[in-house]
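Predict structure. Chain length: 179.
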Amino acid sequence: YGKNADIEINLVRADIRDPEVLKQIQLEGDASNFKTATPNFREAVRTVSRMAEIGLDDEAIATRLRKGQSEVIALKDAAQLGNNVIDRVVTEPGLGPYAAELGRGVRAFGFTPEAAAGWFARIADAAKGQRPTITAIRENVERYGRALAKVDQTALFEGAEGFEGMRGGLLGVLDANTQ
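Prediction complete.
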């Protein structure tokens, strides 16, 4: 411990010019980082995304990172909302479940990432006592998700006439139903 502490170093002889070898080294490095210290939200999202891009499925990623499969899926879902959302969660970790739930709407129901990020921003900018619960968000993603897939999402912030028989933008409808 301290400035005189021993540091464990693992030397690996490998030709990282070979793409397959590089992938394996990256996977080992990522797994090692998760053993050393708990990464922040951004690092976790990047690692899960990188592993998925390499071709690992959710179960393999979860095993390598010693996480639950549902946590891996939630991180992948949150990643769909973009770097601004990820950065906001790093500064306010309590927003992570909101990002994951809205990202699930992108994956499961076809929300556009921009629309989900817009809804996230509305939630994140609300006073802490005025934010809807994660349960309310989940229920509304389920309730409106299928109908949302059938409408033009360009009207989300404005008049989405006829959506679920209501007038007003979808985000307004969702806001009203998550209070």
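Summary: The two ends are 49 Å apart (CA to CA).
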